[in-house]
Design goal:
Blueprint lengths: L1 E4 L6 H14 L6 E4 L11 H4 L8 E4 L1 H6 L13 H12 E3 L1 H19 L6 H6 L3 H7 L2 E3 L2 H15 L13 H11 L15 E9 L2 E8 L3 H5 L1 H8 L13
Parallel strand pairs: 1-2, 2-3
Antiparallel strand pairs: 4-5, 6-7
Helix pairs in contact: 4-8
Length: 249
């Protein structure tokens, strides 16, 4: 299970109630807590995690989308033509695709093109160009690269975009501000890594493409599960539901 958190001691009664409801129902507590801030502290204890008293094994992680968006503070404007490419490169510094999943999807696309359009001889690179992000997210799993690798890759990406400009000569990066952002965010790299032993994906079904059976996955991490959490809150928290409970928090 994955829970989300928002800052503020005003949530303490709610978190205490959640702990009690899980305990009363005899249901194991969630494995992870995704937050948009307060993911760690100099003392090694997350303020958000400390609010769930009794859930000693709860792992607190910073939502990757919120982490990446923090780098926007080091840009001149988010409307810059290179903004999307820059954010995509940052995401690639953090995640890597499961090679087996991607190979299976490529093979399915190859067979589909052969059967429907009589297209043959495509290289893996060309096949990848014909896959859209939605297909990759639906059929392929990702994992975090590790803090050290991500630190190196982000450093290289920031260096590559340091002098990037659009056609009118407007730079993307404010180097002074970006240096400050990176100096602050560097310490959060361990906070965005997938914890060992926690299953981040659930197979929800399968479909056939080009005669190849592809699994369909749902990911527990990411902005979708984080931001839409309130829509599902009462459905999976054990115990008696109370009308208006959510709006009263």
């Amino acid at each position: 299970s994955v829970l989300t958190s928002h800052e503020g001691q005003g949530l303490l009664p709610m978190t205490t109630g959640l702990v009690n409801r899980y305990k009363s129902a005899g249901v194991p507590p969630p494995h992870m807590l995704y937050v948009d801030r307060d993911c760690c502290s100099s003392m090694g204890t997350s303020r958000a995690g400390a609010m769930f008293v009794g859930w000693d094994d709860l792992v607190v992680r910073l939502d990757v989308c919120h982490f990446v968006r923090r780098f926007a503070a080091g840009l001149h404007t988010v409307s810059h033509p290179l903004y999307g490419l820059f954010m995509a490169k940052l995401s690639a510094c953090i995640f890597e695709w499961d090679e087996g999943d991607v190979a299976l999807l490529r093979e399915a696309k190859r067979r589909e093109l052969e059967q429907r359009q009589d297209v043959t001889g495509l290289t893996d690179e060309l096949l990848m160009s014909k896959l859209n992000p939605k297909q990759l997210a639906q059929h392929c799993r990702r994992r975090t690269r590790g803090a050290e690798v991500t630190e190196q890759l982000i450093t290289e990406t920031l260096e590559a975009f340091k002098d990037a400009k659009e056609t009118m000569g407007i730079p993307l990066v404010d180097q002074e501000r970006m240096s400050a952002v990176w100096e602050t965010q560097r310490r959060h790299l361990p906070c965005i890594q997938d914890p060992p032993g926690v299953q981040m994906y659930t197979q929800t079904g399968s479909l056939s493409k080009g005669g190849v059976t592809l699994p369909v996955y749902r990911c527990a991490r990411g902005s979708t599960s984080l931001e839409s959490f309130h829509n599902h809150l009462n459905r999976f928290i054990p115990g008696v539901q109370r009308t208006g409970w959510g709006s009263g928090v």
